[in-house]
Structures are given as C-alpha cells and as structure tokens.
Amino acid sequence: MSNRENPSSNRLLVLTSHLLTPSQTAMASEKEAALAAVPSDSPTIFDKIINKQIPANIVYEDEKVLAFRDISPQAPTHILIIPKVKDGLTGLSKAEEKHCEILGHLLYTAKLVAKQEGLDDGFRLVINDGPNGCQSVYHLHIHLLGGRQMNWPPG
Q1: Which of 19, 35, 50, 137 fits a 20 to 30 Å CA distance from 67?
Q2: Is 135 helix (H, G, I), strand (E, B) or coil?
Q3: Residues recognised as catalytic
C-alpha cells in the first residue's frame, strides 16, 4: 500500500521528521549524498573550484593545495583542504606510495590554516572515505573543524 493510500503513513513520516535535530537532519542528508555519489573521471565540484569555474571563499593556496570554507559548515570553523592535482587520489583508500608527499603537505597545510584561523585550543581533521565513510565528493579532501568543543565518538 502506498503512502497515498495510507494517510497514517504520511503522518508518521511528517512526525518522524520533526523529531530529528538539525544536525541529525544534516547527517541524514550527508549520508544520502554519499550513497548517491559514485567515483567517476568527470570533473568534481572541487576540480571546478580549483579551475575557478565555481567561486569559493579561499583561505589558503599554494602550488599544491587549496583551502576554502565549507558551504555547509559543521562547526564555527569548517575548511576543506584539497590537493590541486588529483593524480588518481579520489579517496584515502586509493593512496599509493607516490602520494606520500602530497598527503604530508595536506596535513602540514591543515596545521598552517588552523593557526591562521586562531584554533590554538585545538581542532579536528576528518577524511571521509567511500560510501560508508560518508564521502560525497571523490577528490581527496580534509575537513578542518574547530571553534567549538568536539565530541567523542565522532560519528
């Protein structure tokens, strides 16, 4: 029986949606996006940001990486740090020995940006990998989160 044929089912969906906190609703949306995303050779949104085809609030850039504010922040400070050249590095699970230099540079950049942002009391770095890791863009990226007390376990 469809929801149209069963009005009480519609009420249950509406009531259930009102029980979720905004952060739970955001997490559900992120999970849906991650499950819908599939790795491909097509340019990602990050490729378009690197190529200046899409605007971004850039906070740091050098010859190897780009850091910009997340458009859907999960903390007062939420910055994405990405390599400018993907080189097959769509996620951490795809890393090879040849990627060691850029992986180290990404982490060092995170430290520089955290200092620049005044996150002296601490911060968190997150790398989502694959559908179960809630990865929605298949271009390796690090989330730099700070400006509030982080909780444990994270997710």
Answers
A1: 35
A2: coil
A3: 141
Report the amino acid identity of residue 48: K
Cβ pair 68, 61 in contact under 8 A: no
Q: Over 70: is that where the pLDDT of 121 sits?
A: yes
Closest of 50, 13, 7 to residue 28, by C-alpha: 13
Q: Is 51 exposed, middle or buried (0-12, 13-18, 19+ CB in 10 A)?
A: exposed
CB neighbour list of residue 15: distance below 8 Å, 6 or more residues apart: none
Whether this prediction's pTM lies above 0.70 is answered by yes
CA distance linking residue 88 with residue 116, whole number of Å: 30
State the architecture of 37-146 in CATH terms. Answer: 2-Layer Sandwich (3.30)
What would the pLDDT profile of 92-114 be if each residue is shown by its tens digit? 999 999 999 999 999 999 999 99
Burial 114-130 (b: 16+ CB within 10 A, else e): beebebeeebbebbbbb
Q: Which residues have C-beta within 8 Å of that of residue 137, sequence separation ≥ 6?
A: 37, 44, 45, 46
